[in-house]
Amino acid sequence: MDQNGKADALTVELLNEFDIYSDELAQHMPEVLAYARTQCPVIETASGYSVITRYDDVRRVLSDPGTFSSAWGVPRGKMEPPIVIDPPDHRDYRMFLNRFFSFKALEPNEERIRALANRAIDVWIGRGEVDFMREFADPYTASVLGNIILGDSDAAKWTGQLQTGMEHQGVAGDFDGVFSLAREVARRKLEEERTNPTRSDSIVKAIVEARVADRPLSQEEQEGTLVTLFLGGLDTTKATLTGIMLYIAQHPEAEERLRSVHWNDPALNEAIRILSPVPNFGRVCTRDVSVGGHQFSEGDKLLVNFWSANHDETAFANADEWDFDRDARGHVGFGYGIHRCIGTQLARLQIAIALQELFRRISSVRLSNPDISYSAGLSRYPRGVRLEFDSREGV
Ligand code: HEM
Hints:
Helices cover 48% and strands 12% of the residues. The protein is an alpha+beta fold. It has one domain (9-389): CATH 1.10.630.10.
């Protein structure tokens, strides 16, 4: 954008398309959205949906699920329950799932999660350098989710394939392979529970026994719910961890601040706000309605841009700058309203434990590859984060 608020040709082109699977948009997203927020806060795209970019408009849409239904999902993406479920049924889903995701319910897993972080670190600590996402964030988040969501202590067998699928097909909006593999795993886990019911409470058991609108879930709904819980936590947490490590490598003073971060530390709110690893989700209008001065008709599709809302200067002063002392609680990085992320506390716990264990064992992280780019698709993360570090083992 120039001094007169005029956009260059590339910004205009990317804005008009606003294709969330475009690699070029991913590299230029901050400028494109900064321009949109001041000049055209509701972007009418050539792809047939409109993007809501301002904080107040985003919150308004998210707080009214009666008018803005979640049934659409995302462009080209096939979404599953509970993400695509509207009231009143949505409440029933959250009723049987919420109890597994409170901090109190998750706390007993803390030592197990810590052990999984250390197992991932063991592999590369002796080398003095690491491809952070591939060698830490990927295996760590997958093993934690495998343990907590599926009760599978050996999830690494199949999650690698899922992660490769998300990285290659998912970024381009081709989800068929990824979803069918995830469904296959979900089907197996649900079948095991049905034929050999476990006595102890578990997420898989709760899904098998759940009732929504006074009926059991169909096989498809059960599989979909398990897939959402698993895939919902996979790319998002790894994206956040990788984004935080990149920031620390570029701002060494932050290492001390984040070394012993607690799961409920305000610094994590700020990291989620800035990184907003889930940039967009879709809604569809159930009636004619106006948002941000723009008139929509029933059936119109909207992309709610969490990333843009979190970088809106009217909501957060110096919004593009990390400020760990800022009160960032109002951010919408985990969404807002009835669909607010069910995995919020799990994500925080995983991120906090990872930072504690990483900086107990390493220090002075440095970027060995300055050539960083960003992923397109449903989650946004920096690619190519290779780090060098000093080992603190034996210090
Ligand atoms: C830093 C990590 C994470 C971020 C940034 C994040 C972000 C989000 C966002 C923005 C939404 C709202 C979607 C909407 O309004 O349509 C959401 C919903 C959801 N997330 Fe997360 N998420 C994270 C981690 C997790 C984890 C670890 C899980 C695993 C349990 C998870 C499972 C879900 C589910 C099941 C929903 C749908 C909730 C509903 O529809 O009621 N997420 N997440």
